[in-house]
Amino acid sequence: MPLCKHKVGYLERSIARLIFGGAMSQELKNIKESIPTPEDLYQKARELQPTLRARAAKAAELRCVPPETIQDFKDLGFFKIVQAKSWGGYEMNPMVFYKVTGLIAEACMSSAWAFSVVAVHNWQISVFDQQAQQDVWGKDPSVLISSSYAPKGMVTEVEGGYQVSGEWDWSSGSDHCDWFFGGAILDFSKGLESFVTLLIPRSDYEIIDNWHTYGLKGTGSKKIKVENAFVPHHRIHYLKDAFECKNPGYEMNDAPVFKLPFGQIFTHSVAIPALGAYQGALNEFIEGAKSRVSSFGVEAKTNPKTLSLAAESQTEIDLMWNTIESNINAMMACAEANQPIDIADRTRYRYQVSTVNDKCVNGALKLVKASGGATVYLGHEVTNKFLDIMMTQVHVANIADPFAADLGMSMLGQPAVNLMS
Questions:
Q1: 166 Cβ partners below 8 Å, 6+ apart?
Q2: Residue 383, beta-bridge partner list
Q3: Domains of the chain with bracketed CATH
Q4: pTM listed for this prediction
Q5: Which of 98, 104, 187, 348 has the fewest CB atoms within 10 Å, i.e. the most exposed one?
Q6: H helices then E strands: how many in the chain?
């Protein structure tokens, strides 16, 4: 029986990677590995929720996600959702990744944030140069990468690449990662045209424990320090290439998911944890309202304001999910048809996702105010989730103003090209 075109392409890429230097035993294992359905992954995430809730306090105390949680994510296949099949991944529609992230965030937003921003790197490294993929995953395709994309890298061009020094804050999940993505501008005279992601191994950087925060305590978003490390050309990914969807990794990984813009894939990954946590806060609010009685003897479950707030909050959450899913599926349809995504649509999608975190903050605050005086005490779950959600507002990808301006320009017929769209 002849193999279908997709299977042939996958095997050809697998064989090519073996010749390129991959490990035979691991590759054979990857080829044979079955891929779960999205529903399987969602069920696994739901079943993990009680464990994540039980570990939330430990994550806050450790100020990073517990190692056993990272291992659970690996064992359940969550890190493989948007990883290339040539490295044992699933190459799924990113909505599967986002929905799993949302379910994790309902239980523990710190775990969801660290998972989301680390797991999305499995997508990005899959569009890097083939040699860079080999450097990271050649011996173990479960190796993880942390990041901080702020252009803090100071670079000097040398033969074969760049000498790099710098300090980057906010590298979530870094304790569990063996590689680091750091942002840099190679030539300031060219501005964002020369904005790149540098891929740096653990042996070339130091993790500085400076993560002492009010919320998202368990993300372990620590400082990364690099002193005079050499980064070869093949470990550099240009933001412009990611924007234009002309990545070097396409020769090896050509599935539709890898034809989406980096700006869309990454920025959704830093919005979804807040949306999942907002749902988690609402779940806690509803559960508490079933038995809560005010100091004046009013049962929350009979209070019209409580009932209306529950309905309004769930509707708001559903509308955000529906918008995100519609946008992602529209982009995937273009990718599957090998057609470019209209820049006006990309600009609209980018602005819409940038508004998610502010909406989640405002919605969760309403739940706090309606939950009564108990919200002032340590350990109140609605308050905890509100504080976690509030932390995400300061991430540059979640500040909506510049993307609103971009969309307005586009609507009025002016060119609005943002490399993170």
A1: 152, 153, 154, 182, 184, 225, 226
A2: none
A3: 5-137 (1.10.540.10), 145-238 (2.40.110.10), 260-411 (1.20.140.10)
A4: 0.92
A5: 187
A6: 15, 7
